[in-house]
């Protein structure tokens, strides 16, 4: 997606959050002489979304052991719970979006981006604006005066604004309604309670399958990415483990891209792809590990400052640690 994980606002730390640990690789016996052996586990918060699929591929293929790193995948039901755990130091890293990264930093949790998850190319992790099944809206110009369901101050909000601005649609002419819970937003769209909604795949694909009309999507240019990020303190405390976890994420992503059919059933299970589209929805592919560009980060920062979500833009170096990518 997550260009999607990325869809919820950050909240203050909530004490007493219960963590559910989904699995931990066995104590490493690295087969690669260049691999770093680490005794300290790396805890990664995961959601049931496609951006996190490489973590499960790595488990299935034994890549954590091969690369000499212990990884604990900690399941969360929402991005809010996951981000709260990160703020509390209960997990080391996660895959989120650039809006979430800046909000984490604003909240006092210093984090660094290690690599892009989905979104190195425009085709990875699609977002789409769709109109309701009974609507006559077929293009962005027809959204003037219409109600567009979004999640306010999130990556959904950012993508919606970029899609509209790219086509010269004044944002003031579209009535945005904040509907943070995506299943509710989808239901309101399909029941014609709102004229249109912005959704990420696979929910966008599900909406289309159920009769919603595609108005626009972001496959024509890179509007957003999900990113693999870590607490700066975790990087300082366990640099070898963090680097190995990033390396494994990249290896698993390439395995997915080379043999998507081999992991399709795992994808359907872990990403909770809706049953209505399981036969047609393709396994995502991942580009080789790379960092977001200066322009991509600057665009999000400019939007967040204009929305008064942050007092001033964070610089590229404030948000990115280029030393964590495999050399």
CATH superfamily of the largest domain: Periplasmic binding protein-like II
Which architecture of the largest domain does the CATH hierarchy give at level 2? 3-Layer(aba) Sandwich
The CATH top-level class label of the largest domain: Alpha Beta
Structural class: alpha/beta
Q: Largest sheet at a glance?
A: 6 strands, mixed
* Overall geometry: globular
Q: Helix fraction? A: 25-40%
Task: Explain how this protein is built.
The structure is a single chain. The chain starts with 19 loop residues before the first strand and ends in an 8-residue tail after the last helix. It has helices at 53-61, 63-66, 79-87, 98-106, 155-166, 182-190, 203-209, 232-237, 239-258, 264-270, 294-306, 316-319, and strands at residues 20-24, 42-46, 71-75, 93-97, 111-116, 127-131, 147-150, 175-178, 196-200, 213-217, 226-231. It is of the alpha/beta class and 327 residues long. Helix content is 33%, strand content 17%. The protein is globular, with a radius of gyration of 19 Å. The model is unreliable at 1-36 (pLDDT under 50). The chain folds into two domains: 20-121 and 224-324, Periplasmic binding protein-like II (D-Maltodextrin-Binding Protein, domain 2), CATH 3.40.190.10; 127-217, 3-Layer(aba) Sandwich (D-Maltodextrin-Binding Protein, domain 2). α5 links the parallel β7 (147-150) and β8 (175-178). The strands form two sheets. Strands 1-3-2-4-11-5 form a six-stranded mixed sheet, with helices on both faces. Strands 8-7-9-6-10 form a five-stranded mixed sheet, sandwiched between helices.
């Amino acid at each position: 997606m997550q260009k999607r994980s990325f869809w919820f606002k950050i909240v203050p730390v909530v004490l007493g959050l219960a963590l559910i640990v989904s699995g931990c690789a066995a104590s490493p016996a690295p087969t690669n002489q260049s691999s770093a052996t680490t005794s300290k586990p790396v805890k990664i918060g995961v959601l049931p979304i496609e951006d996190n699929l490489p973590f499960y591929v790595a488990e299935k293929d034994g890549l954590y052991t091969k690369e000499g790193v212990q990884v604990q995948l900690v399941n969360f039901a929402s991005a809010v719970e996951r981000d709260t755990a990160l703020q509390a130091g209960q997990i080391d890293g996660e895959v989120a979006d650039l809006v979430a990264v800046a909000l984490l930093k604003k909240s006092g949790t210093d984090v660094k981006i290690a690599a892009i998850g989905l979104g190195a190319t425009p085709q990875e992790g699609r977002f789409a604006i769709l109109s309701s099944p009974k609507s006559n809206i077929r293009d962005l110009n027809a959204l003037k005066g219409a109600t567009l369901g979004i999640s306010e101050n999130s990556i959904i909000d950012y993508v919606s604004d970029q899609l509209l601005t790219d086509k010269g649609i004044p944002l003031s002419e579209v009535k945005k309604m904040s509907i943070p819970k995506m299943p509710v937003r989808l239901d309101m769209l399909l029941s014609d309670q709102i004229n249109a909604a912005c959704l990420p795949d696979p929910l966008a694909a599900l909406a289309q399958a159920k009769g919603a009309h595609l108005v626009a999507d972001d496959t024509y240019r890179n509007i957003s990415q999900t990113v693999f990020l870590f607490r700066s303190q975790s990087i300082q405390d366990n640099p070898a483990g963090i680097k190995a976890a990033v390396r494994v994420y990249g290896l698993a992503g390439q395995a997915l891209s080379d043999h998507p059919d081999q992991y399709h059933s795992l994808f359907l299970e872990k990403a909770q792809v809706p049953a209505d589209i399981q036969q047609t929805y393709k396994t995502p592919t991942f580009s080789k590990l790379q960092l977001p560009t200066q322009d991509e980060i600057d665009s999000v920062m400019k939007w967040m400052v204009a929305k008064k979500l942050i007092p001033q833009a964070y610089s590229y170096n404030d948000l990115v640690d280029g030393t964590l990518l495999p050399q």
